[in-house]
Design goal:
The structure holds two protein chains of two kinds. Chain A is α+β, with helices and mostly antiparallel strands. Chain A is built from 18 helices and 20 strands. Chain A folds into two domains: 211 residues, 3-Layer(aba) Sandwich (D-Maltodextrin-Binding Protein, domain 2); 221 residues, Dipeptide-binding Protein, domain 3 (Roll). In chain A, strand 6 and strand 7 form a beta hairpin. Chain A is globular, with a radius of gyration of 26 Å. Chain B has two domains: 75 residues, no CATH class; 241 residues, MetI-like (MetI-like fold, Orthogonal Bundle). In chain B, 76% of the residues lie in helices and 0% in strands. The chains are: A alpha+beta, B mainly alpha. The interface between A and B is large, with 51 and 59 residues.
């Protein structure tokens, strides 16, 4: 009896410890991340992590490889812009096949873009300037725009323009008809399958568990190194770190500054640092009825001069920087970031407060959403700002609230002073023109075009300027003008740190695709 | 016959409970000072009136509250929980996916809590005021008071990272794939598929989160069993049993334990409910794709259909657990009548 019991205990113990002993099925890459994706329908997906899956499964006409590099050809082999700036003609590479074996033609491009426009998903605005798409032959696509758009080529890299195998998709209920928003029934199918021509195929998606990608044998380009890529949903950064240490995963993608400290110097683990394109900024209302003393442009300037940028960058973690205006360093035409050591000037800030008529300061509320931005806690940053502003006698009363509650007054322009963050919708400086007076974010600070007509006009000109040289000059002027006077204080452009098994190569960060999975090897 | 009537009556009551729960949750989630538009549209589209209107009309948010509820209730009575605003999948499909993961873990944790809780409680009562008793009491207080997220991180660090004797987070090892879904319970499904390796891996992944979840309830069961058994052991009929010359083991198993378990059953019922409540943190740390995280995400996105769906599911659970507890009272104590 005793022996039998003992053997049961031993068998159970063996069962519990022998986990993970399955044989490797080819070359497999396992990435742990805390994703936000909700769908893999290229026409509907809009979350930050969706492109990590859509980029390796679909081709786009143009694409980016890294954050800073120029735009490259994807499924297109050339393009031409008509002199009026309104017609873009793309020539497709010949011989591209979808994973299904169907040839990729200009008609698929036309069908895919029309479907995205008619589905009216969150990303559809990226194609709202397209008035028509035509396919004169199998390898030529012509886009006709309703207005000039200097960021059109960048927009073409987004998943809204991903080329879908229209035959396969239609067989699963997809349509490009005008009433697609109600008649298209393919979303659920797209969530578990892909119909593209990229290096990988979406094999399965189990929400909150994993996405499995397998190699596309029909891929036209260089075959990726890994046969299978698994993206594991692991929310907790501490858990990600433990799994990396145990070699259960190859990449831990969402580490905070704390975990990075722990992992540094560990054998077999490399830490990568990259610039994220997320900005953290303060909004200062220009409407005296809302902002009170905050609405005074001199007070706003004083606030920018009173901040301790070195201290804020320490809170945000190694590698974070402060752009001079709401234009991310890394985008076309962005000027070098502020020197954090010389950006603070308390004497000048106090002088400006005096000039504005507040030598003894004032009291104001400071609204802060309880949110973490790239591993940094916004309320913690708010406390640092509170102590900085105290030095010029601005007494702030921090009011924290859930982001879902804070968004409403923010959008309606009802916050006097608040802390916010912004991730770009597409990797182009035109995105950031939203911060200009009279535009959507500018109006959240009640900064109207009439308050700075020169800057507003320059913004409008830049949005349609297709000559790169002239565009760069315009962008430089905009940033200089916003450095001198704006309703915002740009605080931080965060860095992103992640860790991976040191024998991996090519695990480079791209703010758009996060990791270019097909480029990673061991 | 009395029992059957009792069950039917409870089930009848369940219908009203579901309507009540859906109404209360509907009202509460609509009084939150926010708007699902903000949670589900991108910042750019929030400023686009056409997009906002299309969103409101798609999800019926442009209708008066009473009409919205009437539409929801009408569908609910047909068994349709609606579409989740966040995942854009039927809520019933989401629940069917996440609930088995939670159930598998909760049942496993409950088995640990009940088996060890009652055993420790009995030992502590028998060895009253000895070193063993003090140790068990100390452990049970500890188990009931240690925060679960801390315990979760500690057991992972010790057994997974340092000692390497337990598997890491998740329902399966990174190199295993989920078995074909029959019940959604991985251990059972892989056994049904005849895949012993996956069943073993799934079972081993239950151990650590199961222990962490069980800790609180186990402590509670241990203490309740001990005090209840001590009270029974001081009764006259126990003295009589001992006077008859019965062995102590028989006195406890045949005469004392059954009666002592009545309050324990109540605690088990409550513990099961607590377990479901404490799931969110444990599921997060152990990357367990269960209903706790789904509920959390639904709440933070003001995903009304999903919030109501989860609430109804949990309410049904409570009713069933209470029903089982009530039936067990009768099994343990024949004097209990179902009226």
């Amino acid at each position: 009896m005793g022996i039998r019991r003992m053997s049961i205990v031993l068998a159970l113990a063996a069962a519990f410890t022998a986990a993970g002993a399955a044989s490797a099925q080819g070359r497999q890459l396992i990435v742990a991340l805390d994703p936000d994706y909700q769908t893999f329908d290229p026409a509907l997906a809009y979350e930050a992590y969706s492109l990590m899956v859509l980029h390796p499964t679909y081709d786009t006409l143009m694409q980016f490889e890294t954050n800073t590099e120029d735009i490259k050809y994807g499924a297109a082999e050339s393009y031409a812009i008509a002199p009026d700036g309104l017609t873009y003609t793309f020539k497709l590479r010949k011989g591209i096949k979808f994973a299904s074996g169907n040839p990729l033609t200009a008609n698929d491009v036309k069908w895919s873009v029309e479907r995205a426009i008619n589905l009216k998903g969150n990303g559809a605005f990226l194609a709202e300037g397209v008035s028509s798409v035509s396919a004169p032959d199998d390898y030529t696509v012509v886009f006709r725009l309703s207005a000039k758009d200097s960021s059109f080529l960048t927009k073409v890299t987004s998943n809204v323009y991903a080329i879908i195998d229209s035959k396969t998709a239609m067989a699963h209920g997809a349509t490009n008809a005008a009433d697609a928003a109600t008649s298209d029934k393919a979303k659920l199918w797209f969530d578990g399958h892909s119909a593209g021509s990229g290096p990988y195929i979406l094999e399965s998606y189990t929400p909150q568990v994993e996405v499995v990608l397998v190699r596309n044998k029909n891929y036209w380009g260089k075959a990726p190194y890994f046969d299978k890529v698994t993206l594991k949903s692991i929310k907790d950064p501490g858990t990600q770190l433990m799994m990396l240490q145990k070699k259960d995963i190859d990449v831990a993608f969402n580490l905070g500054p704390e975990q990075v400290k722990q992992v540094k110097g560990l054998k077999g683990i490399a830490v990568a640092k990259a610039q994220s394109m997320t900005l953290t900024f303060m909004l200062m209302n220009r409407d005296p009825a809302v902002g009170g003393p905050i609405a005074n442009p001199d007070v706003q300037k004083a606030i920018r001069l009173a901040l301790d940028y070195v201290g804020m960058q320490t809170i945000a973690g190694e590698g974070s920087i402060t752009p001079v205006a709401p234009f991310q360093v890394g985008f076309f035409g962005t000027v070098p970031p502020r020197d954090p050591k010389t950006a603070q000037n308390l004497a000048k800030a106090r002088e400006l407060m005096k000039k504005a008529g507040y030598p003894n300061g004032f009291k104001t509320t400071f609204e802060v959403p309880t949110q973490t931005v790239e591993g940094m806690d916004l309320p913690t940053l708010a406390q640092k700002i509170q102590s900085d502003l105290k030095q010029i006698n601005i007494d702030t009363d921090i009011k924290t609230s859930d982001i879902m509650v804070a968004l409403d007054p923010y959008r309606k322009g009802k916050q006097a002073l608040s802390l916010w963050y912004w991730g770009p919708d597409y990797p182009d400086p035109n995105n950031q023109l939203a911060f200009l007076p009279g535009n959507s974010v500018g109006l959240r600070a009640n900064w109207t075009a009439a308050m700075d007509p020169k800057l507003a006009a320059l913004g409008e000109k830049t949005a349609v300027e297709t000559n790169p040289k002239a565009r760069a000059a315009d962008l430089k002027s905009i940033q200089e003008m916003m450095d001198a006077d704006t309703a915002f204080a740009v605080l931080l452009q965060s860095a992103r740190q992640y860790a991976y098994a040191s024998d991996l190569e090519g695990a480079y960060y791209n703010d758009y695709y996060k990791l270019n999975l097909a480029a990673i090897s061991r | 016959m009395g029992l059957l009537k009792f069950i039917v009556r409870r089930m009848f009551f369940l219908v009203f409970l579901i309507i009540g729960v859906s109404l209360i949750v509907f009202i509460i989630s609509h009084t939150v000072p926010s708007d699902p538009v903000l949670a589900n549209l991108s910042q750019r589209n929030m400023d686009n009136k056409e997009m906002v209107e299309a969103f409101r009309s798609k999800w019926g948010l442009d209708k008066p509250l009473a009409v919205q509820y009437a539409i929801y209730l009408g569908a609910l009575l047909k068994g349709d929980l609606g579409l989740s605003i966040r995942t854009q999948r039927p809520v019933s499909m989401d629940l069917a996916q996440y609930f088995p993961a939670t159930m598998e873990l909760a049942v496993f944790a409950m088995v640990i809590a009940v088996v060890f809780g009652i055993s420790f409680g009995v030992i502590a009562a028998i060895k009253r005021n000895t070193g063993v008793d003090r140790l068990i009491r100390g452990m049970s207080v500890l188990g009931a008071s240690v925060p679960s997220f801390w315990l979760a991180l500690m057991v992972l660090l010790l057994f997974y990272v340092v000692l390497g004797i337990a598997p890491g987070p998740g329902r399966l090892g990174p190199r295993f794939s989920a078995p074909h879904t029959v019940t959604g319970l991985f251990v059972l499904d892989s056994l049904l598929a005849g895949d012993l390796a996956t069943a073993q891996d799934a079972l081993s992944h239950l151990v650590l989160p199961g222990l962490v979840l069980a800790a609180f309830t186990m402590g509670l069961i241990t203490r309740t069993t001990r005090s209840s058994l001590l009270e029974i052991l001081s009764q006259d009929y126990i003295r009589t049993a001992r006077a008859k010359g019965l062995a102590e083991r028989e006195v406890i198993t045949r005469h004392a334990l059954g009666n002592a378990l009545i309050p324990v059953v109540t605690v088990i019922g409550l513990g099961f409910g607590n377990l479901l409540g404490g799931m969110v943190l444990v599921e997060t740390i152990f990357a367990w794709p269960g209903i706790g995280r789904y509920a959390y995400q639904a709440a933070s996105n003001l995903d009304f259909p999903a919030i109501i769906g989860v609430s109804i599911l949990i309410a049904i659970n409570y009713v069933i657990i209470n029903l089982v507890v009530d039936i067990l009272y009768g099994v343990l104590d024949p004097r209990v009548r179902y009226e």
